[in-house]
Amino acid sequence: MRRRARGGDAVTFDFAPMVDVVLLLLIFFFLTSSLAPRDRALPLSLPGSSTSVQETSSLPVVSLDTEGKVYLNGEATTLARLAGQLRPLLDASNKAVGLRADERGQYGAVMKVMDEIRRAGGEKLALATRATP
């Protein structure tokens, strides 16, 4: 014996509104994840500084990890290609570049990256640090 709702119609569940909400959530998360700065996603241990200030501008950022791998705005590159890739970005940034280097990295590797930044035309260098009390 089959039971029916009081009105005589079978009860149905409409999935269309739920699918719309799920798709909107997916679009939201895709857009917000692509807007996050990629250079901050690199696992670097920045040196501490009691006089560090908050970054306020959007400079091109060169990152250097402990293994000597070079990244420009979060994208892997090589030391040989760094100057060529950095030149077009310097015109828009008033010749300023940010440098994020792991504190456990080699000093010589940092100097090579700084030389390439200067060769590309970089005149101002902002060193990234973490705030310490």
Concise synopsis of the structure shown:
By secondary structure, this protein is an alpha/beta fold.
Question: What's the SSE blueprint?
Answer:
Layout: H1 16-35, E1 48-49, E2 61-64, E3 70-72, E4 75-77, H2 79-92, E5 96-101, H3 107-120, E6 124-127, E7 130-131
Parallel strand pairs: 1-7, 2-5, 5-6
Antiparallel strand pairs: 2-3, 3-4
Helix pairs in contact: 2-3
Organism: Deinococcus koreensis
Pfam families: ExbD
GO biological process, one term: protein transport
Describe this structure in words.
- This protein has 133 residues and is α/β, with parallel strands linked by helices.
- The protein has a domain at 39-131: Nucleotidyltransferase, domain 5 (2-Layer Sandwich).
- 36% of the residues lie in helices and 18% in strands.
- The chain contains three helices and seven strands, in the order H-E-E-E-E-H-E-H-E-E.
- A hairpin with a 2-residue loop joins strand 3 and strand 4 (75-77).
- It is a single-pass membrane protein; Single-pass type II membrane protein.
- One of its GO terms (cellular component) is plasma membrane.
- Keywords: Cell membrane, Membrane, Protein transport, Transmembrane, Transmembrane helix, Transport.
- Pfam families: ExbD.
